[in-house]
From TrEMBL:
Domain of life: Bacteria
Matches recorded under InterPro entries: Adenine_glyco, DNA-3mA_glycosylase, DNA_glycosylase, Tag
UniProt-recorded name of the protein: DNA-3-methyladenine glycosylase I
Signal peptide: none
């Protein structure tokens, strides 16, 4: 079941609780991203979100982009102790050692691949289309594909990419369409 936004249009229930969520839902969530840079940003943000509300990450996204050189993996991969210390002191982002280290480690892992390979690799885990979920309860937190993606990413040197994070990534980047059946974005 969807919830109407302030404009009366039906959206996924989670999307109607704030203007930030409405904009994200309507303009970004579930739209296909098929480039290494865009996917690296989403992997990083989904990792930072782990254990937190997505609205926290969404509202801090401009600060994250500034702190992480607009998520340019070529720049982030070169971050050293001085950069790490700067990030740990930045109140505009989530200051978590493991998550900051993950963003740096994952940039290096991405750069170990050929250009475009990261995108093809991630999209290889996209499941076949399935029926539209009718309620939020019909939307899984993990799937066999997200478990496989997590294992494969870890095997390739990525960290902080568990099955739940991978499934959220799949949803956010259009690998799966979990907009509810009667949502305007379906």
């Amino acid at each position: 079941m969807t919830a109407p936004g302030p404009d009366g249009l039906p959206r996924c229930v989670w999307a109607s609780s704030s203007p930030d969520y409405i904009a994200y839902h309507d303009n970004e969530w579930g739209k296909p991203i098929r480039d290494d840079h865009g996917l690296y940003e989403r992997v990083s943000l989904e990792s930072f979100q782990s254990g937190l509300s997505w609205i926290t990450i969404l509202r801090k996204r401009p600060a994250f982009r500034q702190a992480f050189a607009d998520f340019d993996p070529r720049v982030v991969a070169k971050y050293g102790q001085k950069d790490f210390d700067r990030l740990m002191a930045d109140a505009g982002i989530v200051r978590n050692r493991a998550k900051i280290n993950a963003a740096i480690t994952n940039a290096k892992a991405l750069l170990a691949m050929k250009p475009g390979e990261f995108t093809e690799f991630l999209w290889s885990f996209a499941p076949e289309e399935r029926p539209a979920p009718k309620t939020s309860e019909d939307v899984p937190a993990i799937t066999p594909e997200s478990i496989a993606m997590s294992k494969a990413l870890k095997k390739n040197g990525f960290v902080f990419v568990g099955p739940t994070t991978c499934y959220a990534l799949m949803q956010a980047t259009g690998m799966v369409n979990d907009h509810l059946a009667d949502c305007i974005s379906r």
